[in-house]
Amino acid sequence: xxxxxxxxxxxxxxxxxxxxxxxxxxxxxxxxxxxxxxxxxxxxxxxxxxxxxxxxxxxxxxxxxxxxxxxxxxxxxxxxxxxxxxxxxxxxxxxxxxxxxxxxxxxxxxxxxx
Length: 114
Known about the structure:
Blueprint: H1 11-28, E1 37-40, E2 45-49, E3 53-58, E4 64-70, E5 79-81, E6 86-90, E7 99-105
Keywords: Alpha-amylase inhibitor, Disulfide bond, Signal
InterPro entries: A-amylase_inhib, A-amylase_inhib_sf
Function: Inhibits mammalian alpha-amylases specifically but has no action on plant and microbial alpha-amylases.
């Protein structure tokens, strides 16, 4: 008779790992306030999408604040990209959430009234 033993993850490892999932979840969730969109990004800002990443290149002479629009309205952060610089956003993934375009956005943090 064969005895199968299941290896258990020690509690000291499992609890911190479980708690870290709760800490990381808000980083991928949509923020409570939407990104302030302004208009289409200039033509000198290009994107190249793949399954995992969307790379955005700023070919303009000035810094540009951009965000990525996706087919399912997924939220993407507003990022300032310096001239000649690049930024990486999420790709289309297994849900085929393709990029529909780039938009300029307000990269300034929201101000609180006093």
